[in-house]
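Incident log entry.

Two folding requests arrived from the same account within the same minute. Monitoring flagged them as a possible duplicate submission, but the sequences differ. Recording both here for audit purposes.

Request one:
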Amino acid sequence: MSSNDTRHVQIMIIGSGLSGLGTAIRLSQQGLTDFLVIERGPDVGGTWRDNTYPGAGCDVPSHLYSYSFALNPNWSATFSPQAEIEQYMRDVSQRYGVRDKHIFDCTMTGARWNDEDGRWEVSTSQGSFTADFVVSAAGVLAEPNLPDIKGISSFEGEIFHSARWNHDASLAGKKVAVIGTGSSSVQIVPSIAPEVAHLDVYQRTATWVMPQVKRPYLGLERFAFKRVPGLQRLLRALIYIQRELFVVTQVKYPATGIVLEMIGRLKMRFEIKDPELRRKVMPQHRIGCKRMLVSNKFYGALDRDNVDVVTDGIAEVRAHSIVTDDGTEREVDAIVLATGFHVADSPTYNLYTGRDGRTMSEAADVEGFQMYKGITVADFPNMFFMLGANSGLNYTSLIYIIESQINYLVDTITTMQAKNLRSFEVRVDAQHEYNRRLAPKLAKAVWADGGCTSWFLDKHGNNAALWPDFSYKYRKMVRTFDIEAYDTKAETA
């Protein structure tokens, strides 16, 4: 890299979804203004900018799904649609004046730690940069998982992933296949089932679907959220407490999940008339082993006359059809891939090269995917991973974890400035000890022995995604930078 064409910043943030945008705002508030956000898309929003499929919305209550410093009294309903969340993020980026710190349509192509200079060298589609610190805020739902199915490239109809929805393609009156029955599928299927000629829903594993207490907010309620001091924060606190109770059924005492399973069974019995269909969609794993889904419309859509649930595996895709393992061939005009995302094996991990010359992916291949407190990694100095290993949640708002990690990030940088330090790197023994203490909690959780496989697990079978405890305990753990767990180097004159 030539110094003539390389721009230097103190802090480089990769991505402007909820993690990256929140980090930018907090840094600005702390007076840490020498930062830059590079974003591969045309605007802020991340997941909520990219996922525009029919029915897209959040399955976490609206008042908990916002930054604590930017509550929104204008949510239209108890659970927000995609467009509202995307607009909220645009509004927040304007309100807090960080848009001029962004470079949009800028894709990172690689980042390498230069140990001699004590900084990161970042290459992008819009030039080269160096940074004292890098914040990876690329997101856990950023890279679509495209299935490796024989012949899929030979399909001649419309085919697209749920996160890359082709709005130019009309599905009305067509034979459509939706592959997958996860979080996006339960929103897509009810939205398109009434307009298509026929819909085949390909289900690999049945998943528990719970009721959603969804309703529009009244104008009087929104007026009160704006005018009554503390009302919105009180509601937010009550929702937070209610969501934390899921930790009891998933982590602390998984056997209590039988109560939720009874609710799920009653819901299924009430909403699906066909006993054969009920048999097909009855989960064979304990509730919480896979992400619980919420929908009041999914089962009703599956029970329509023009909808079939296919549980046989897909053998191949042909030019105009899908063939299942039992030899049945079904004609189809369009295929929607509701197949989720690369989480534990995100392709973005191939882009970061650490102090020892290995990429994040190469390090994970050998050791499994481990981090320290879900934020820092040995051999990757001066780097923060937002929503890293074992810091995710599947029952409440990820924004709570994001803000907790931002606390840690800001305290780390300000501590280093105060002590005149150039670099920090978590010690290998501290990282191993942290994960050793985490292991018994993970082993006890329903995700480990609930009878399913899920995106929570990496290729080694380890849960590299979720935090196995109450979220407030995570926040307490990362409240301040614990410098004793790190090797540090002082600034040179």
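Request two (distinct sequence, not a duplicate):
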Amino acid sequence: MSESAEVPLPPWGDAIAGAVGAVLANAAVYPLDIVKTRLQTQIKKPATAPETNEKKDLEKGSAAEVPAHHDEHHDIYHDTLDAVKKIIGKEGLGGLYGGMFGSLLGVASTNFAYFYWYSTVRHFFQRRNRSTHLTALQELAVGAVAGALAQLFTIPVAVVTTRQQTQPKSQRKGLIETAKEIVHEDGVSGLWRGFKASLVLVSNPSITYGAYQRFHEFFFAKKPHLAAWEAFVLGAASKSIATLSTQPLIVSKVTLQSKPRPGHPKFKGFVEVLKYIVEHEGLRGLFKGLGPQLGKGLLVQGILMMSKERIEVLFIALFALLRKLRAQRLAQAAARAAAVLPK
């Protein structure tokens, strides 16, 4: 820890550490990403059951659910396990990894941009305040600014990836081809679909941070530094609160970025998506895919932070070694220069 204070990482070093950690974390749980995206982009509504089956449905105490408009290329998933079974059954094990390259590219670019801007903006606040300490409100502002800038530059990759993840294997195209398809349909602005929802979702890391600080103060008030497992548990708990608070917006953003299914309207904004989902699926529909969303978020955050911390330690050690070697070379050069000077 003392080394990090002596040799702080530059913004690009922090950005690389965050990007690598995010790629490792998301690669480890990628199937959950596919499943939650498929669950969040399907829209179901109560079926008009045949008269012979209506009584059976009522006896079971639940209305049957069918797609709002039947599409032979898309299955309807009832839960996480059902989605996994149907994806493997129809597309093979590789179906759980469809669009992975584009997704990891998006993860790497988003996290690189986020941590770069976070480090840059944070240093700006520190210089302005002439202090290394920031208030909780300033920390939240730093995270919000960094998140907004990261989304502005990287959302096109997320739009393309979401389109790939929601397409059946038989219709799935490569990264460039998918981007061209989106531009052909909606123009260049189509690559920024869901941007407003993404900006609102900048509140997600802000909520995570605020909850984490409150948990720290409540459970470990006398400990300035937490053990790895303590940080992981508090991080997971705070991430759960942030996800539960913003899940409807997450569903809305993913729906906006996916290709409209046959019979579904082409949404213009996230409020329109929210109204449509509530109309067809009720309030519960705003939280579809919550299980895999939570699972993915908790695992990704844990692996990301552990990986990022280790990479930062390596970078700090490397920078310290480079500075030491540079100092040695300067000392040797000075000694040689002194030796040739006339006495």
